[in-house]
Predict the structure.
Amino acid sequence: MLHVQVFVFNPFQENTYVLYDETKECVIIDPGCYDAAEKAELTDFISDHQLSVQKLLNTHCHVDHVLGNAFVKETYKTKFYIHASDEPVLKAVKVYAPHYGFNLYHEATPDGYLTEGDEVCFGNQVFSVLFVPGHAPGHIAFYHAGEKVVIGGDVLFRNSIGRTDLPGGDFDTLIQSIHQKLFTLPDDVTVYPGHGPETTIGFEKKTNPFCAVIST
């Protein structure tokens, strides 16, 4: 059985996810932990649950989602994966992070790249990679059909969507990603976003003021 643990880290209130199952294998997605207390919260959970970190994944590489990459990669000696189109976004973080007060940010280098149709496997779990650009040029999401779960990053929020005014963002592309990649999933799929509470595909199709497709 899949377990989804969320941590809310850094001043941007970013959602960091640890996914694990009965095998005790896990993956960490978008580690936003920055200060010592946040890092301890993450490592204590992993230690307390006796988890083995198999992979480090980024849905996209904006500063609030990558602050803990180097810490996780070094602490757990694990491989780190992103979409290749977001590597320039990742490399830019070290330039602008100090302007947000993150003077202790350390860069991590990806070990490989994920693209549409790839599978991320750990324990008894298999997630499919969805390419969903618009908020960021190399944004991806992770979908588990059996568990009806998608880790969506900053694409679709509860009654909102990701911003598109950052470099590489594009509103029309984002809406296309939502309609063609997320809204084609079953209505009862739970969306775990990069910020804020979870939602469902069906709820957003009916009520989201930016991208709803069903009249109520």
